[in-house]
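Table 4 source record.
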Amino acid sequence: MRWHSEHHMEDGKMCHPSDAPAWKHFDGCFPDFSSEVRNVRLGLFADGFQPFGQSGQQYSLWPVVVTPYNLPPDLCMKEEFMFLTVLVLGPTNPKGKIDVFLQPLIAELKSLWGVGVQTYDISKRQNFQMRAALMWTINDFPAYSMMSGWSTAGMLACPHCMEDSDAFRLIKSGKQSWFDNHRKFLPINHPYRRNTKDFIKNRKVTKQFPGVRSGDEILQDLNNRGLRKVMDVDVEVVNAAISKTCGWNKRSIFWDLPYWREHLLRHNLDVMHIEKNVFDNIFNTVFNIPGKTKDTYKSRDELNKYCRRPQFAQNLVTSKYPDVPFVLNKSQKKDVLEWVKKLRFPDGYAFNLGRCVDAKKLKMFGMKSHDCHVFMQRLLPIALREFLPNRIWEPLTEISLFFKQLTSSSLTDEELRNLDEQIPVILCNLEKIFPPSFFDSMEHLPVHLAYEARIAGPVHYRWMYPPERYLRKIKHKIMNKAQVEGSISIGYIMDEAAKFASFYFKEGDPTLPLKEKRNEVYLDDIVDDDMFEIFKPPGKAIGAEGKRYLADNEYTAAHLYILMNCPEVQPFIE
């Protein structure tokens, strides 16, 4: 629990939230809290899930979980250190009224901040008064609205831009578009600001993004507007009237925490879901998936009302629309999907994407968030390299590399500033290619991700992958589907009791089976000292056993691999 204060940054690289400005700013605001390094910094996440599967009855269950950030990177955000604090009852989604269920948790957080709790430090063998502070929340975009009180739907959906949004409603489709919303993030002398052809026609951009509001500014805005908490009298009538003129729909209960206004970042944009949505839009549009592509008849009809792209307008003689260069033809789709089907990844790296290929309908289906993550960062530039013109392939590669660099395990301030400068240009280049209907709020949010990483630290401490895995564990505790919440509560308490009892056994809890790790290697039975090191680790067969002769190239590759990886051969190579 003291690791965060004892480690030091190497070469200016942030590898933990404690290295980030948000953590250090909080320490500076509350030196009495930071002086005791064992005081706990917490993160909170909440997400709903359907306990009965897709085909079962409609039921929405919302666990609220907290996790400490004092721990080192190899322990932080692990299941063992995630604690179920609130279980919001189903069967309906609580939506904005989730604050009602959070009241006991907020009261306890206020007590932990003001008074603390007497705690025993086993490493120093002494008691101390432990206090705790909530650093931020981690949620997907709909739950972001539930936690923060800022509506994430409509033309004011961006919680960073707020009223400074330039989103508009499309004429034909009636959808909100965030097209041409990113030139204001460019340097004031950038040529794209004066471009009147590739973006909204006859429009130059001179204004600049004013920056993210501070906690004091947001709190003052809430007070001036008179927004109420969901527990107050006449809250629905009052907040409904106010929400018509702004993006706020309530006063979040988190503002009751005395330190909440001092945080540089209070609610995180979830990189996991944003990356998945961006990938889905790109893939479905490039592959022209019916019902999912953004290149539709309506988007073609309204295209030249916003942009100057007459080459894509409808042919008045044939009433047909010309092909666009960012869509693959049938043979190109087959080549890409056949390539994906033959791909093989290292064990445990990714799901077998070949199972997601539909060769008849020429599409991919059933891809989870991590599958999209791997495809977006590793495969997309390679898959489209031979089939798209450079002016289209390059921006797609740039957005792929942006997410790859953003999600690195360690980041420097200089790297994040470069990403913050690059992402508006990347989005502007995408705007020069795709129609306005392509750009919903999810295509806009990447412009703020590098800023959040620069303020709060590496992304993998603030995205939804660990919480989603923990929700899967919670779901498996449901033994009685007639009493869902009771099953989860009892299962969680039993796990906590077993974990506590295991500390009194020398080798852990004897009632829990010892599960071997996926790629665990045991060398205890190896007694042949004359055997080369490369042959000592035992292997495991994958699938049915069989025999065949190696081809000459396979034999040569295996021979070369052994020679290059055998320690006994290294002296001869050198």
